[in-house]
Design a protein that fits this description.
By secondary structure, the chain is mainly beta. It has one domain: Beta Barrel (Lipocalin). Helices cover about 10% and strands about 65% of the residues. The chain has 1 helix and 9 strands. An 8-stranded antiparallel beta barrel has the order 1-2-3-5-6-7-8-9. A hairpin with a 3-residue loop joins strand 3 and strand 4. About 10% of the residues have low confidence.
């Protein structure tokens, strides 16, 4: 019985959402060179909110954010050349919890972001 309880506790811990709350700095290589973006996440259970800022596209609010174990998904709306674009981010938190690899499709091109927690 004790072994079963220990196994259940371990399973519950493994399935718990990663706490990614805080500030993250991300970099990516785009068609015009290196890009930087800052994410400020607030995770409550599996719900994710916050905002993100880049020098090229400005500030955006995170919507439809979800943390499921080490998987992270959210959307942002950016304005580029007077057009609004909805960007869908998908990411995976690394085992140490201090990095996230994101992918986002932008006009048919997949961009990979490497985020590191800074606070």
């Amino acid at each position: 019985m004790k072994g079963i309880l220990s196994l259940m506790a371990l399973l519950a811990f493994t399935l718990a959402a990663a706490d990614i709350s805080g500030t993250w700095k991300a970099t990516a290589e785009g068609p015009n060179g290196s890009m930087e973006r800052t994410f400020v996440f607030k995770a409550e259970g599996n719900k994710l909110t916050g905002e993100t800022t880049s020098s090229m596209l400005g500030k955006s609010t995170i919507t439809d954010g979800k943390v499921d174990g080490d998987n992270v998904t959210f959307n942002i709306v950016v304005k580029y050349q007077d057009n609004e674009m909805n960007l869908n981010y998908k990411g995976k938190v690394n085992p140490s919890g201090n990095g996230i690899k994101f992918t986002v499709d932008v006009q048919g091109q997949s961009i990979e972001w490497d985020a590191k927690k800074v606070s």
